[in-house]
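tokens incoming
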């Protein structure tokens, strides 16, 4: 009994010590094209990291601070068409191979012709049809990240991706075929919307859902303004996916 009573203060002390040395997240958001509402994503993802408690977030617009990537405890990104140097690509791979985790959202796999990043991420963005409502199917209900989550519907950009590696573990998908931007035709097929991929001792959790734009967030300045879209960000199920993604990337959930 005495040993048990003595264990309680020790446990409290260890928790206090853990909180005095918080985890460091590298949060990378942005695009040279400013074609999404990156201010919104920066706010929401910072809030999710803050709500997880015990995490401090350092914010960046690109991947070029290799020391920050190699030194962080978790990597969270929402980028598009960001040029990634060879040095930065090597840092990302090394970070993952040494056990780091990367929570990558939406347009992160739109990589401006980079040939290395798709080999790390496992996919490459190709195109999407116009913003629309579509069903999301739970591919692997046994995965802890999807516990208690049933099929749902979203209004979002439906991402069509090239699967570059053969080892992604699909968690969510939709079935779709049709015409995408850039005059690209897609046959009807199951399309991954969330997946995990092991890289060395670490790995990636990718979530394709999550578009948002203001009227002036558009691919080219000369394009007309577009409707304000918030995507799935206000859906309880999406908030849960973000929360669980943060817990996963912080290694508070199993791979």
């Amino acid at each position: 009994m005495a040993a048990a009573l003595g264990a309680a203060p020790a446990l409290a002390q260890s928790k206090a010590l853990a909180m005095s040395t918080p985890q460091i997240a590298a949060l990378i958001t942005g695009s040279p094209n400013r074609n999404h509402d990156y201010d919104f994503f920066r706010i929401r993802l910072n809030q999710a990291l803050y709500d997880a408690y015990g995490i401090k977030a350092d914010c960046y617009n690109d991947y070029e601070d290799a020391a920050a990537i190699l030194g962080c405890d978790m990597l969270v990104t929402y980028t598009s068409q960001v040029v990634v140097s060879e040095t930065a690509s090597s840092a990302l791979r090394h970070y993952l191979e040494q056990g780091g985790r990367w929570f990558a959202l939406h347009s992160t796999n739109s990589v401006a012709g980079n040939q290395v990043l798709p080999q790390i991420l496992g996919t490459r963005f190709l195109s999407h049809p116009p913003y629309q409502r579509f069903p999301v199917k739970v591919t692997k209900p046994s995965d802890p990240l999807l516990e208690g989550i049933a099929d749902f519907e979203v209004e979002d950009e439906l991402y069509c991706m090239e699967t570059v590696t053969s080892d992604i573990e699909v968690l969510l998908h939709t079935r779709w075929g049709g015409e995408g931007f850039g005059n690209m035709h897609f046959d009807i097929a199951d399309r991954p919307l969330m997946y995990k991929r092991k890289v060395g001792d670490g790995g990636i959790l990718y979530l394709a859902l999550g578009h948002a734009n203001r009227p002036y967030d558009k691919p080219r300045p000369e394009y007309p303004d577009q409707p304000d879209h918030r995507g799935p960000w206000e859906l309880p199920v999406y908030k849960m996916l973000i929360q669980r993604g943060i817990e996963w990337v912080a290694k508070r959930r199993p791979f």
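note: The helical segments are 2-20, 38-51, 66-71, 86-97, 117-121, 236-249.
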